[in-house]
Amino acid sequence: MAHYGYIRVSTKWQSENGNSLEAQRQAVINQGADPELIFQDVYTGVRCDRPQLAELVGLLKRDDILIITKLDRIARSVTEGMQLIDDFVKRGVVVDIINIGRFDNRPANRFQLQVMFAMAEFERDLIRERLQEGKAIARLDPDYTEGRKPKWSKKQYDHAMKLQERHSYIEVSAMTGIPVPTLKAEKRKRKDVAILAE
Predict the structure, then answer these.
(1) What is the residue-wise DSSP string for 20-32?
(2) For 68-121, how does the pLDDT look when each residue is reduced to its tens digit (9 = 90+)?
(3) For residue 37, what is the DSSP state?
(4) Alpha carbon of 154 to those of 21, 92, 138, 172: distances in Å?
């Protein structure tokens, strides 16, 4: 029976607010992890692979214990974390999450895991529902546009199109800051609208 630890940081903010690798390392050691069996990953929002976790998953065997400080250290979402834990438990690995508790194949722990899955699913549904309600309310605004907020306003485009009557696209771009391809796209769009209106 081996006592593994897994620690991870993903941003500078986390490393400075109690989630540093050093703080996590000490916490998992205090919980019983072998200092020689602690795996760690560091990544940013741009780089999301976790090679040390992948290696650790391949090493874990029945009756081994995996110690982590928090669920979000092992996964990027509650759902992903709970799925990982469920897989470990099915393999006979004990997962000790310091701020939640210990998970193994006992019925009470399996039930707790199922409840946490259900809560995660419920939370996702609530978030989805709030987003849909927010969009429905936003659509009541006559100026609402679906998707990303346009970088340039209608007033800015109107001004640019007026300038384009007497200047080249390059000159208008220099005067307004609107890129030439964007100006050309807006001109085409306005022509299409005019044709449809005829």
Answers:
(1) -HHHHHHHHHHTT
(2) 998 878 877 777 777 888 899 999 999 999 988 888 888 887 787 778 777 777
(3) G
(4) 49, 61, 19, 16
In degrees, to the nearest 5, what angle opens at C-alpha 66 toward C-alphas 62 and 67?
160
Q: Residue 160: is it exposed, middle or buried by C-beta count within 10 angstroms (0-12/13-18/19+)?
A: buried
User: Shortest CA distance to 77 belongs to which of 116, 131, 130, 35?
Assistant: 116
Band of pLDDT at residue 190, cut at 50, 70 and 90: confident
Please calculate the CA angle 49-55-60 and round it to the nearest 5 degrees. Answer: 130
CB of 94 within 8 A of CB of 102? yes
pLDDT of residue 198: 58
Closest to 82 in 3D by CA, of 51, 110, 50, 44: 110
Catalytic one of 10, 20, 153, 168: 10
Contact status, residue 123 vs residue 78, Cβ threshold 8 Å: yes
Determine the pLDDT at residue 29: 97
10 has catalytic annotation: yes
Across 43-137, the runs of DSSP E, i.e. the strands, are: 65-68, 94-97, 101-103
Residue type, 10: S
